[in-house]
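Posting here for the record, re: S-adenosylmethionine.
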Amino acid sequence: MTQQDKHIPVLLAEVLSYIEPQANKNYIDATLGGGGYTEALLKKNAPLGKVMCFDLDSDAILLAQKRLSLWQDRVIYINDNFSTIKSKIDEYKFDKIGGIVCDLGYSFLQIKDRSRGFSFESQGELDLRYNKQTSLTGHEIVNTWQENDIARILKDYGEEPLARKIAKLIVSERKKTKITSQILRELIIKAYRQRWSTPSRINPATRTWQALRIAVNDEFYHLKIFLQQAIAVLPKTSRLAIVSFHSLEDKIIKDYFKQEAKDCICPKELSKCICQHRAQIKIITKKPIIPTAQEIQRNPRSRSAKLRVIEKIN
Ligand SMILES: C[S@@+](CC[C@H](N)C(=O)[O-])C[C@H]1O[C@@H](n2cnc3c(N)ncnc32)[C@H](O)[C@@H]1O
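Prediction output follows.
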C-alpha cells in the first residue's frame, strides 16, 4: 500500500497528547479504520499493553491485521459496532483501561472503493453500509421509502434546506428508472438549479449523502449508546477522546458531555433537585480542538474535524 492509498489519521498528535498512553496499560480504539490510531497506541503502550479495536467493516479489519501484524499478540479485533463496547469488555475481561479513542465516520479506504457508494462521485448502486452484512442500503431508501420519510431524513440527518424538493424529485424519477448514485446526483443538481442560480461553496450532494449514510448505519443511535457505555467503563482519571466531522454529531457529543459533567439535570423550573444525578466526568476541552492549517493542507479531509476530550472523575 502506498502512502497515497493510506488513510491519514486526523488530529492524531492532539489525541495522543490528551490520552497520554502509558507503557503496559490497555486502550480501546472504537473505530479502527486504517489502523492509524491503533498503531500509535501500540507503539506507546509496549511491551505488554493491549489495544481492543472495533470496526463494523470486515475489510478494514483484514487490512489492519496485515498492517499491524508486528503487534498481533497485543491487538484484539472486534468486527462489531462500538455500541457493544461494554459487553465486549466483559467478554474479554479487558481491564487496566488507560483510555478510549474514537474517530467517527468513514475512512479513506471506504471512500476510495467506489462500489460502496460513500463518495457522491460514485457510480452504480448506493450502498453506504459500513457493515456489508446488514440489510438496509441507501439504494433501498431512495428506491422504496415514502417521500415523507426520505424528506425527513434529509432534513434531520443532513440539514438539507431542499429536503422536500429533493425527496419529491426522487419519488417522481423512480417511476421511470432506478435511482442510482449518478441519477441522485443529477436530481440534487436539478433541485439546486431550480432554486438558486449561483452555485454553493460545498457540493450540494454532500448533505444528502451524509443523511443517507447516517440513516443506513443508524449512526446517531449507536453513537449515543457508545457515549453512555464508554463513560461507564472508563476507570477514574482515564480519558475518552472523540473526533467528529459534522455539526450534528458534534452536538450529540457536546450535549452528552455537558450533561454528564453536571451534578443535577433536573428541569430548570424545579426549585429542588429530585434527579440524584451525579457528575461522572470533567470536560477537558472547553472548546473543541480543530486541526492546524498545516494539517488541513496535508490532509484536506481533516478540515471539518473536531476533537472533544473528557476525563472520568466518579
Ligand atoms: C475515520 S475511520 C477511522 C480511522 C482511524 N482512526 C485511522 O487512524 O486509521 C472510521 C472507521 O470507523 C468505522 N465505524 C464507523 N462507525 C462505526 C461503529 N458504529 N462501530 C464500529 N465501527 C464503526 C468505519 O467503518 C471506519 O472504518
